[in-house]
Amino acid sequence: MYEFYQLLTIAGVFLYWLIIAGISIRVVAKRRSIGVSLAWLMIIYIVPLGGAFAYLLFGELNLGKKRAVRAELMFKPYGEWFKKLYEYRQYRPHVASLYGQPISAICEKQIGIPALADNHLTLCSETYEILSNLIEDIEQAQETILLEFYIWHPGGRADDVAEALINSAERGVKVRLLLDAAGSRHFFKSPWPKLMKKSGIEVISALQVSPFRMFFRRLDLRLHRKIVVIDNKIAYTGSMNLVDPKYFNQDAGVGEWIDVMVRITGTSVPVLNSIHAWDWEVETNERFLPEQPKCLSHEDSEITDLVQVIPSGPGMREEVIHRVLLQSIYQASKSIVITTPYFVPSDNLHMALIIAAQRNVKVDLIVPDKNDSLMVEWASRAFFSELLEAGVNIHRFEGGLLHTKSVVIDSNHCLIGTVNWDMRSLWLNFEVTLAVDNLGFTQKLEQVQQDYLKNCNQLCAEQWQKRSLPSRAAERIFYLFSPLL
């Protein structure tokens, strides 16, 4: 009997070693960034079986077999749709600025979507202005209203949007609503889905979370885009979820969320429509590719805002937004202003900011003073010392949870959309951002950023070095997990 237990122990140890070795080899074979690989290896060895199980659930970008196959089949028809955009007069790469040209080149090669002219962009930085404008456009819709959000939280003006959608559906407008299952869980528990479906609105819960599904796809993939398209003529995108900040997340102790949205008319609206169509088809297998933009002659219009629509996410080409961010930082010669609620950058982005500051580019990073994610807050602080030492100005916004995701380069070119400066946004979530090559719009966004700065407390490098030992320890602990946040 003793020999039997001895053999059983040896077999168990060998099996344990085999599992750990196999998963370790798989982690290394994926050839991701060294930080991500080391973080996973650390988890696997510190919490052996739990870490191995966690890696199988969350370690790889597994969209699920059904969705992955569907996305693969979609590349050809969507690629052909995007390819037609190059034939239009609005494709004018030679009129792009020195900032816009390399970004457009990256996007054309990576995702096949060109930057297009003949757009009109309106920057909306007040929540109630955004919701009022959206309701007004919904009420005037004639044919279709398409919405896609990470969070829809009932209450306040968000309910007014719901009522406007129901009224539009009842007068014959086709309404499709695509919401992330986890982010919008409060909405799906409310009476609104039933009321909407009763009026003819199609309501789809994307990326549903359940224990059964965890064996077939990664559970923490999230639909983080915010897109509204009305009649294929008007679009909205930006950082704001469909929430009234006075009714949303009030118990988090971070204040009201501060956001911006961009209202767009013109050539890029059908492109945003196609991104919604992609997400809808991945989830439902129903195809609603929009009509192409109208091809206007030289006499009919002038070259206005040049916009590059940049989507990213599982099933799409990898790292495109990450590469655009890096390119934007590298080409800055005077100034960089960044606003983001969650700052846990990749090693490459972290070093790019340090190098920018060291070559005398004025770098301003604006983050919330209080964050609704404790892990992100502490991991974020771990990057501050090197940034401050290099000369980066770090500002902590005290007027609420600053949720705006924006980058302004040299007061000339800007990026604005749904993308946070963290691994989740850059590699996991379905995201969309706009690269805007228009001086007037960029200056308006810059003014919004300057208004944020008036309500900020700037970190002092000397004072930062005096923070407590427990704080330093917490930073280092969460820093080890930063590639996984």
UniProtKB/TrEMBL annotation:
Domain PLD phosphodiesterase: 219-246, 398-425
Keywords from the named record: Cell membrane, Lipid biosynthesis, Lipid metabolism, Membrane, Phospholipid biosynthesis, Phospholipid metabolism, Repeat, Transferase, Transmembrane, Transmembrane helix
Lipid biosynthesis as UniProt keyword: yes
Reactions it catalyzes: 2 a 1,2-diacyl-sn-glycero-3-phospho-(1'-sn-glycerol) = a cardiolipin + glycerol
Main subcellular localisation: membrane
InterPro entries the UniProt entry points to: Cardiolipin_synthase (IPR022924), CL_synthase_A (IPR030840), CLS_N (IPR027379), PLD-like_dom (IPR025202), PLipase_D/transphosphatidylase (IPR001736)
Signal peptide, first to last residue: none
EC number(s) on file: 2.7.8.-
Residues annotated as catalytic: H224, K226, D231, H403, K405, D410
Segments crossing the lipid bilayer: 6-29, 36-58
Keyword Cell membrane: yes
Membrane topology value: Multi-pass membrane protein
Localization (cell): Cell membrane
Primary role: Catalyzes the reversible phosphatidyl group transfer from one phosphatidylglycerol molecule to another to form cardiolipin (CL) (diphosphatidylglycerol) and glycerol.
Family: Belongs to the phospholipase D family. Cardiolipin synthase subfamily. ClsA sub-subfamily.
Protein name listed in UniProt: Cardiolipin synthase A
Organism: Shewanella schlegeliana
Gene encoding the protein: cls
